[in-house]
TrEMBL record, chain A:
This is Translocon-associated protein subunit delta. It holds the Pfam family TRAP-delta. The chain crosses the membrane at residues 140-159. TRAP proteins are part of a complex whose function is to bind calcium to the ER membrane and thereby regulate the retention of ER resident proteins.
From TrEMBL, chain B:
It comes from Cherax quadricarinatus. It comes from the Eukaryota. Keywords: Endoplasmic reticulum, Glycoprotein, Membrane, Signal, Transmembrane, Transmembrane helix. The keyword Transferase does not apply. This is Translocon-associated protein subunit beta.
Length: 167, 194
């Protein structure tokens, strides 16, 4: 009987609102780390979602720098992807949190936004931290500059010694 | 060096077929494919961004974005997926999708359009197919050529320094030996003869 109820509840949850409880995400992140040839840094988080209530085929929304956007899914519906780009000159490094919402969370969020209420009261079902270690923008000092400085130093040393000798 | 001007936002009108039913609310998607690179280099990142805007009055359902342009023969996928779907795109909303690929070969490559398919309204069974803008042809530079031009050449300069060392060190040692031989003798003051 208990099992039957549990199955029934799961069924109701699946049919009804595609809500996900006890969400677990497994994410793989990718960010561009070489900014010498690209103009924008790509932030990509690929993840899979598993719910403790067994809900499947859930539409997700994510809060990123672009605002709240629909999350892209692979065609089989198993893998999700959140991605955005930022200008290479202004892209910040460090942890970038991505808050995930399901349909109900999204609705609550939109309602809070419309009413100019605090959106932080709406709890995301999961949060991904995408770490960007920073991108390489080329050397600080050109090697030619270093060579010229070294040459000037050698020449200056030789010249001072010579003038001291000749004086 | 031909600087690639890929940022031309040539939006392709995806749902350009005029809707037959007057007053019927339909979704219309505009999709763009952009390459955010200064140079395309063999084995280095190419950032490709797709953005889809819904300019229609209804939400687009089951939007599928497929880019068959990057075959696994010519490209490694560093991040992202080349075939994704969005469950719905609300009117006036936009979504973006990013993929990072690495070319395996150099030479000219034609960046073609990605395909967008969607149901133009909630209760319509027909599937509308459209295409994104085409970034066009771009030259992928061989890594060796790129490196020759843009690397800091640290190794080359080190070899140059090593070659210069004997030419500098030999006269320096000669001078230093003579200096250390005579430097201990204090020099007499100027203008006074012994």
């Amino acid at each position: 009987m208990k099992v039957l109820i549990a199955v029934f509840i799961t069924l109701v949850a699946v049919v009804h609102g595609e809500s996900c409880t006890g969400a677990q995400v497994e994410a793989v992140g990718f960010t561009s780390q070489d900014a010498t040839i690209v103009t924008k840094i790509a932030y990509i988080a690929d993840f899979t979602l598993s719910c403790s209530n067994g809900a499947k085929d859930i539409s997700l929304y994510a809060e990123t720098v672009d605002g709240i956007v629909g999350v892209a899914r692979s065609v089989d519906g198993l893998k999700y992807q959140v991605s955005w780009v930022e200008d290479a000159a202004t892209a910040v490094s460090g942890e970038r949190p991505i808050k995930l919402y399901d349909d109900q969370g999204y609705a609550a969020l939109r309602k809070a936004q419309r009413g100019n209420e605090d959106t932080s009261t709406v709890q995301p079902i999961a949060t991904i931290n995408l770490y960007h270690p920073g991108a390489y923008r080329g050397p600080w000092v050109q090697s030619e500059t270093m060579a010229i400085i070294a040459a000037i130093f050698v020449y200056y040393y030789a010249l001072t010694q010579k003038t001291r000798l000749m004086a | 060096m031909k600087v690639l001007s890929y940022l031309i936002l040539a939006l392709a009108f995806v749902g350009c077929v005029l809707s037959e039913g007057e007053g019927e609310e339909r979704a219309r998607l505009l999709a763009a494919k952009r390459v955010h690179n200064l140079y395309l280099v063999e084995g280095r990142d190419i950032v490709v961004q797709y953005s889809v805007h819904n300019v229609g009055q209804a939400a687009a359902i089951n939007v599928q974005l497929t880019d068959a342009g990057f075959s696994t023969e010519d490209f490694d996928i560093a991040g992202g997926q080349l075939q994704v779907k969005f469950d719905r795109i609300a009117p006036n909303a936009n979504v973006s999708h990013t993929v990072v690929v690495k070319p395996k070969k150099y030479g000219y490559f034609n960046f073609t359009a990605a395909e967008v398919s969607y149901q133009p309204s909630e209760d319509s069974a027909e599937i509308q197919i459209g295409y994104t803008s085409e970034p066009g042809e771009g030259g992928i530079i061989a890594f060796r050529d790129y490196d020759r031009k843009f690397s800091p050449h640290v190794f080359d300069w080190l070899i140059f320094a090593l070659l210069m060392i004997p030419a500098l060190l030999v006269p320096y040692m000669m001078w230093y030996n003579i200096k250390s031989k005579y430097a201990t003798v204090p020099r007499g003051k100027k203008g006074r003869s012994d």
